[in-house]
Amino acid sequence: MKKYYDRTEEFRERAAELVSKMTLEEKVFQTLHTAPAIERLGVKSYNWWNEALHGVARAGVATIFPQAIGLAASFDEDLLYEVADAISTEGRAKFNMQQKFEDRDIYKGLTFWAPNVNIFRDPRWGRGHETFGEDPYLTSTLAVKYINGMQGDGEFMKVAACAKHFAVHSGPENIRHEFNAEVSEQDLRETYLPAFKASVKEAHVEAVMGAYNRVNGEPCCGSKTLLTDILRGEWGFEGHVTSDCGAIADFHERHRVTDGPVQSAAMAVDNGCDLNCGKMFFYLTKAVEDGLLAEEKLDEAVTRLFVARMKLGLFEEKDAMPYKSIDYTSVDSQKMRELNLETSKRTLVLLKNENNLLPLKKEKIKTIGIIGPNANSRNALVGNYEGTSSRYVTVLEGIQDYLGEEVNVRYSEGCHLYMEHVSDFGLVNDRISEVKAVCEESDIVIACFGLDAGIEGEEGDPNNKYASGDKTSLELPGIQKMVLNTIAESGKPVVLVLLSGSSLAVEEEKIPAILQAWYPGAQGGRAIAEILFGEQSPEGKLPVTFYRSTEDLPEFTDYSMKNRTYRYMEKAALYPFGYGLSYTSFSLEQVEVINSESKEGAIVKALITNRGALKGAETLQIYIKAPYVSAPKYQLKGLKKVRLLPGESKQVEIKLNKDAFGIFNEAGESILCDGEYKIYIGFNQPDERSINLTGHTPVCKVITL
To answer: Comparing C-alpha atoms, which of 543, 635, 526 is closest to residue 130?
Structure first.
């Protein structure tokens, strides 16, 4: 059976024949995300805009999985595939239902604008929680699996995925429409492009979305360098390119690189942008008539769009429609809820656990206090680009359900998420007496603080309260820190549950246990309760660095990677990339590197044993340091999640191809250096902070290429 990506030429012939029968105006209207029907040719209307960042979004009930940054924290590529496959099943099920009732509205198609594979280079960026973190290798690995799970491997695509936002895009949000990201060739190739390249060349992603900003002077959605030279020229991309919404108008209104909408539309299509989320491509008719755009260029764009629809099976006879057997009962099913709960548990990262306070034992607790603005918040569960769940389980509800009548649960909101009072006419810190009372009554306190997508998110989101979506600092907002200090000073044991999509600088010495929960999805409260009480051991790892302060960072607008992320930072992290604790302990033995003398790569073998009393999972991480002066200090180049029962051992093998040893020089050229490479093999980075926090020193093997 031919896969859909091997049938491109077959579909292209059909699409080109169809396009040849269209008038100029008909072709132009097909380049809009609201493509109208052409009844005389049997073309139905189609709205290209749909979202599936962590579940089918914005079109009614669907499973809300943990936000993308949480999925990344699983460090589990197989899990990402399973989640994406489930999302595409719900996407097809909802599409089949909607088509039955002739519903072709926005968010009702099969072209999903996800995943977001931008690099989370700065923790202030509001949209960072939409990404898979700060590391190019981790992002690439997870993106490939996510796209594979979405698109499937059949004769037709299950749904179409889209790698966005191409490229060099990670804030600031409030100037994204006019911002010019200046980036070196080395950083471009080493950091900002790898996940897009992997999405194209390894995952056969159907669509790529351009970013709002310029890169080195060229607007991304009309960039010859990005779209023509690199995407289609170097990488051989055969899918379609869509603009971000409203991005074409920015060419003349904000970037000032064209004189008006006709030139902007022509520039975009001429350089390889096929679809306009927005209305600027209305002007393509005039662009062609005035000679600013060759009609053949327009034909090619429209052909690519119809190839995409044909890959999805939208032009097959009704009885031959692919995936027609996926019915609406697949949506929000028990199977989906179970997967969501398991996924949520695997994303949680244990940052601190002094004296093994966790897991809690309910038989030793008479009263437990749950305090904080995120304790009973649905918003703190879901992040952005979310669907609608049939049930949300907050942290408070999850713990209440778990404990039942056996333990008394006391609750206080504690404070507002970002304002100084909860009640409209209240004084500053108007819940503090209640906080003290709950602490006084409780044997242990679960403090639920952090952020939600109303504080960190996208510029223009109607509920954003801070800085057009970006964070202004790494501190807890409002008076959260003041209230948290009061809880810490109560003398009671405290577990801090941080719900946020990005790193926060929480250095409270009096708090013995900290669990980073991200935005854990609609089942998040259940997952957190089960982890807190030891039904499962935490296994997540940080996909981003937790810095101590913004003072440790360059300017937000500086796109150089110097002093950014674990690969280049000079100061010690608060909590490092790749770090995460467990309730059990693992040993690493019999580590060897095979075939190390050739430039074809190497194989790493190791024996991992669960030495503790609880079942758990650990991630073998491989970092490589290359002998090149301007290379990162080391880079993640291999990982494997292993699940073990107490006392169980497993042999793990990871192949490192020659690309794992390659680096980029200052000209952006990929090179292999002669000399000694250090390969660090372990459960965390080889930095001093990670070693001190975990007690685990990765094994270092030196090989010569």
So the answer is: 543
